[in-house]
Input
Amino acid sequence: MKSILDIEVSCFANYGTPSDPKTVNLLTWLTSTKYKDKVDLIRSLDDKKERGLLKSKLPAITPSAILKNRISEIPLNEKLIKHTGFIQIDIDLAKGNIEISNWNDLKDEISKLPQIAYFGLSASGKGYWGLIPIPPDPDNHSGYFDTLHGIFLHQWGIELDGLPKNITSLRGYSYDLDAYFNHEAKTFTVLKKPVTVIKTTPKINIKPVTDGQYQWIENWILSKISEAMPGDRHNARLKYSRLAGGLIAGGYLPASVEQSIIDSYLSQYGSEDPKEIQDREIEAIKYGIAEGIKVPATPPPIRCLFVAFTDIKDYSDKAFKIWQGEKWFYIPKSTVFEILEFGFYVLEYYLKKERKGDDRKPPAYQSTAWKEFPFDAVPIHQIIEKKTLIHDDYQTEFDSTEAEIRETEKRNQRLRSDIERIKQESQGMESLFIQVATLVKWEWIEPGCIKEPQGKDRLFRLKYYTT
Output
């Protein structure tokens, strides 16, 4: 019997090439190891950005469609040749699935579903992707995805990536020598029925945010857009612009965030993208904002990372001062949401923010030790209890003694340098004694003798200077 996967799909040179696709056999593609070495390299890397860059250079297929091209400006009906009768699912641990405790068993569990035709590792090796047969109906493709998304989320607590909702969504090359195949998978036919929504004018609160409490949200949105990988930048701008619009409607962001997103895009890609692409991306940002404003939203949780310290001081109205390693760090109070005995939770965006040309680097943090706080959580502005390893009674004395020691060491070093200079410059012993006496303010008596001043402690003996 012929495999259900023995069909043709379109294959593009890489994520950045939207035209001139080739037609390849889906089953051959799934079992090929042609680019295995490149995928093994990707899976060996820890840096997410570096992995994403290499993944974007791999060839990619459109599992749901045979296409003439993937040019976004061209309507779907003008570039679609045929729907393949498949929809892909993408499950990433980092995207809403971090609480899945049996992640390593996920492949075996998903493979029990009779509608799964293929299921295997993603290119990074940190997620899974699969194929499910559906009726080859382009008009209802997104409806089948919505139904699958709801089943996975509400029945099994699994969040599916939303990109495969688009019929032209790409799937980069990957391989899994232990992938699951079901050549007789059942067709998934449950279609989510559209819900008729009565159009109403939403009550929109567009009060400007003046206290800066939610400034981190705008910064976070800008960073998520700028970090998007090639092939996903357009969708990222649309997605986060829509979120920004919802937050404008909810009163958490000012309307000026739209221009901030546009300015950020132009500063990053204005010199690279041609004028027609710039116009398209700016239009996408404005469209996303306008769509988001229709549905008021609340901000996402505040994600913080743990920063350890050995001492903390309430430095000013705006900052805490912590001692970590051998250095003091000044941390804005607006980024601190919980203080423990030997560390605190600091806003992730602040710690990971790029600081080009800025020597004020953040302290070391534990990227695996994170905690989420409610979006309306109030930052910590005062240390209720003294969190220090040095007893408060001795702090002033300790600081004073430490400063005195440092000053003495500097003075001693200057004296040594001056004595060395005198030795080199002196033409005779008598001149040496005179200069030494003058240097330490001792009384000159006769050649070769120096009388110590009364009532003072000398730091160095004469023999030290003359040997």
The longest strand covers residues 366-373. The chain has a mean pLDDT of 81.
